[in-house]
Amino acid sequence: LDAEENSVMLGGIERVYTTYNESSVLFKGAGSLEEQYVKSTFEKSLETPDSPSKDISVSFEMDEDNIALTGLQYRIIDEMMNASSKDTLNELIAEYVAVRDYQAKMYPDFADQQQRIELIWGREQYVFYKISALIDHNMTYFNKEESEAINFYSAYHYLCTGHYNDDVSEFLDYKGSVYTGSALCEILEKNKIAKKWREKLDNSSNENFRSQYTLIKNYCDKNCGEYKKSVDDIKREYNYEEIIGMARALIDGSSE
After folding, report:
1. Contacts made by residues 14-17, CB under 8 angstroms, sequence distance 24+
2. For 24-42, what is each residue's pLDDT tens digit?
3. Which residues pair with 202 in a beta bridge?
4. What CA–CA distances, in Å, run from 104 to 10, 114, 131, 182, 253?
5. Buried b (16+ CB within 10 A) or exposed e, 74-99
6. Which residues contact 218 (CB under 8 A, 6 or more apart)?
7. Does the pLDDT value for residue 188 go beyond 90?
8. What are phi and psi of 5, to 5 degrees?
9. Are 207 and 201 in contact (CB under 8 A)?
10. Are strands 16-19 and 5-8 parallel, antiparallel or unpaired?
11. DSSP E strands: which ranges in 1-77?
């Protein structure tokens, strides 16, 4: 990079000019160019007086089923992000929606909060990754440094076994939803699931906001009917006994 000033335009995002130099481009983490760009782009443009992000206060219920259903979602997200065909993707989307809706019936308050976090902060995280790729930093999900990059199910395993750096409650209350929101942005973009999906996201109403999940569920309702399965069948397919066993280990460890 040899210019003193540059600008980046991502679809649906207002153009922002950012001054940089060699040291600011190479620096990573808090205070980096990526972080400054994302904050300057999003803090004012996404927050509104009635933004859903203004009312995020529900704690994740730490029981085996809730934790395990989250782990099952992570398994499916990993598959969705690497789907090799449209048929495979549609089947995975049908599975994901079935599990997520099932969890929402059991834990409706948190399911609502999850979408709010995904909509605001997940979208911000997605842009962070896009910007970092443009300047060859290639930051990816969960990592503090490039060498620590892991997928969603690995993060779940590390979390349940005490080998993940972040606090468990903070991850389940907030950070996990930030990451899934970013992943859903990537899935929407990569697979052309919804035309002009960025413009369709809407945080202007606390009652009727449209999240990334809203768009994916709408797509599923229209295109994935032939792939619908019961949650019990999905659990068997993904070895739910292993997933809930890790959740149980987390609960047992937390109670000691």
Report:
1. 14/41, 14/45, 16/40, 16/41
2. 555 555 456 666 666 566 5
3. 210
4. 32, 10, 33, 20, 26
5. bbbbbbbbebeeeeebbbbbbbbbbb
6. 194
7. yes
8. -145, 145
9. no
10. antiparallel
11. 5-8, 16-19
